[in-house]
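fyi for ur records
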Amino acid sequence: MKKTKKKNDFRWGIATSSYQIEGAHDLHGRGPSVWDVFSHSKGRVKNGDNGDIACDHYHRFPEDIKLMKDLGVDSYRFSISWPRIFPIGTENKVNQPGMDFYDRLVDELLENDITPFVTLNHWDIPQGLEDLGGWTNRDMVEQFVKYSHYLSRGLGDRVSNWITHNEPWCISFLGYVEGRKPPGLKNEWAKSLHTAHHLLLSHGKAVPEIKSNVKNAKVGITLNLNTAIPASDSEYDKKECAFYDAQFNRLYLDPLYKQKYPELLFDRLLEKEAIKQSDLNFIQEGDLKIISTPTDFLGVNYYSRAVIRDESIDEKLNENHKIPMGPKTDFGWEVYPRGIYDLLKRLQDEYNVNEIMITENGCSYGDAPDKNNKVNDIKRVEYHRSHIEQILLAVDEGIPCTGYFAWSLMDNFEWAEGYSQRFGLIWVDFESLERVPKESYYWYQNFLKSQK
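which gave:
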């Protein structure tokens, strides 16, 4: 594969998140997170799995950083466990052992010439704050700003790159409409919209807070985005696709970059009687201006495109031209590399985003070690290769994409799927906690050498 023309400005990294890998759920003053409670609730997570131990990264981070160093990445995106810092959430003094852990982690990364990218909220908020209403409560905005203040003040002398939230759609939609993530509610569209708004508002308020504490800070937010297309050329599917795009992509992009919300979304929810007009009173004067506070980059998590059909229409009545689908990963997600190029193009053309980083991109395949302890995950190799190829094509065309973080460093706790889905470049035995680099690890290692 060819080098990108801007290779000296491009970051090549790897990504993880705290609850998925750290373990040590009750050590050194850490309080319970919403994911501790959710995963210990019967029927919420496949096989009754939880993140109590996960990959035990809390104790094994020097070993894991050595694996990153050997891989050859120059950057590492990780998240902070909020309840390690504020065990209940409402405290005004940090839990020092929690800060000490991240101090050691950051120092170890820098000693190995790996640039830290810190994500403040990757879903595992303190249960104490959830008990007060969580993100449906506007008070969460100030709790997040406080948290951002203490983290940026504590790590800002060594960490310049900050991400406020990871994938607010997953918190808002999967938490309150589909019920697959905390707090596990279904069809609560009003609460979902309030949650999305408060997440975005807290992001806008945290940006200047972080910048005031960190010299030369670069601050962004990470959204999971995709390219949505109708499953056929029927008017039913086109209308449903427009609604999907509004609730998945535009609900976050429009306020961040256009200082407005997509009216189509609110109109359709009112039409469906999923919300009442009074449910839209959550937007206060000045909120949208705060949300659109300029960020230094947009983090993008891309896994697949979305092909949308109106499930309420009998398929026999909706048999117009159908979109051919590509192969699927073990998670059931279509492999569609072209989608990442199309998405980058849209962000440039429609939203004029000044800088984009692919903060997650990866796939789940269950390949395990063979008798020689080798993991020949050739489908994962092809997934990363084909997606990177599309990104480099976009970069060469002048689209301002400046980084790629493969998801994930190692197999981990995959939320409601427990340990049944494996996204890592490194295979993990969740009993012995042995790490075994996969063929995709060595492919990425060789690719990174070619970019130097």
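The longest strand covers residues 115-121. thats all i got for now
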